[in-house]
């Protein structure tokens, strides 16, 4: 029987949490899936873990390792995983996150109901899960747009507002494979470091239907040392979000010709101003913090 879902996990030096992510896949109540592991060029023990997993489950686990002097970025790794997938529907999972046992069952039931005749995407809010007992009380469920089916472009404003708070997280997404493989044309434009998934979601939101499942069925781990944490600490995330908004404006101007084009461009201008103000505040905060530390030294 052909696989109905391909689970794609892309990673780089993920030996700390990848086993837990994989375990959450094997605990799914929906069982007709394959697992596609995409290694961007790890130098830790992740490769050995992945190779052993393939030996244990050769019928449903496949491992693809990038060969090259430079590592393969996150966006490109996701595209590679989609191209190697054998099922028509993808479940996307980050290497340090986990799924509720009913994630695939719940998401796939919605996907089959609404996207049998046309490609689309289902996403659910994730639980921002702070790692470690000292920080567990900070965990919370991500806010999300109104549940139900949203036709193309109707989610764009909510997607960007409040610093992308309601935007889909990779770990909460189930999507038609053809949408991800078609987005390979943005390789070279999309970020490969952080905010990479926002480029894919932008293209999907503007051109394809999206269903919001209100059940929080995925845990999005927050931990010191993660790619997102390291980038946020230095202010890089805000810079990448500004670049994404500029890319989105150019994409809409260049390729999007529906009646709401002008409205969307105006909304993006507003979000860009909001981001600039936020970056200025963060910059001032860092300066004041540095001055305070110097004064304390005297």
Written overview of the protein:
With 298 residues, the protein is α/β, with parallel strands linked by helices. The chain has a single domain, classed as Spore Coat Polysaccharide Biosynthesis Protein SpsA, Chain A. Helices cover 45% and strands 17% of the residues. It has ten helices and twelve strands. The protein has helices at residues 18-26, 46-56, 74-84, 103-114, 156-164, 177-182, 196-207, 227-233, 236-255, 261-297, and strands spanning 5-11, 33-39, 61-65, 89-92, 98-99, 121-123, 126-130, 140-141, 148-150, 173-176, 210-212, 218-222. Strands 3-2-1-4-10-6-11-9 form an eight-stranded mixed sheet, sandwiched between helices. It has a four-stranded mixed sheet with strand order 5-12-7-8. Helix 9 runs antiparallel to helix 10 (261-297). The chain is globular, with a radius of gyration of 20 Å.
Between the first and last Cα atoms, what is the distance in angstroms? 73 Å
Q: How would you sum up the major sheet?
A: 8 strands, mixed
Overall pLDDT metric: 90
Report the helical percentage.
Answer: 40-55%
**Whole-number total of structural domains:** 1
Shape: globular
What oligomeric state best describes the polypeptide chains here? single chain
List how many beta strands DSSP finds.
12
CATH class type: Alpha Beta
Structural class: alpha/beta
Residue share in β-strands: 15-25%
